[in-house]
Amino acid sequence: MIGQLRRLWRMRPYLTSAFLLACAVTLFFAGSVVYQAVYWSFHREMAVQPWMTVGYVARSWGLDPREMDRLAGLPLPEVKGHPQPLREIARDRGVPVEDIIAEVERVITRMRAAGPGQ
Q1: Residue 117: what pLDDT?
Q2: Cα–Cα distance, 75 to 90 (Å, whole number)
Q3: What is the pLDDT of residue 100?
């Protein structure tokens, strides 16, 4: 096998390099997909925490983050140019983070009761 690869390298170095690069890129993206699948399989329906963003909470609960923002009256990520943790939203509003968490939890309950796509 190694001998064949060396012979191919000598005959077609650019083609062999392109093939090996394609293999490496494929492995990288396959590893990324597996990592994401394993990560989110262990982070389903997590309790809402101050460090979480609305997008993280929505993904954990299988809900639409934009709809969650709208129903909870929370700012979209574009407001500051990055997704804001609930702690930061509470600080900007001058309210305890527990109030924001309670509102997000109410919205989760309401969205789950409404069912998918509503």
Answers
A1: 56
A2: 11
A3: 94
Q: Indicate if the pLDDT at residue 74 is higher than 70.
A: yes
Report d(CA 70, CA 18) in Å as an integer.
47
Residue burial 73-98, b: 16+ Cβ < 10 Å; e: rest: ebeebeeeeebbbbbbbbeeeeeebe
Distance between CA atoms of 19 and 85, rounded to whole angstroms? 42
Cα–Cα dist 18/41, whole Å = 35
Q: Which residues on neighbouring strands pair with residue 53, listed in sequence order?
A: 85
Q: Is the pLDDT of residue 115 over 80?
A: no
Count Cα atoms within 13 angstroms, Cβ side, for 30.
6
User: Each residue of 6-16: b (16+ CB within 10 Å) or e?
Assistant: eeeeeeeeeeb
Is the per-residue pLDDT at 31 higher than 90? yes
The answer to pTM > 0.85 is no
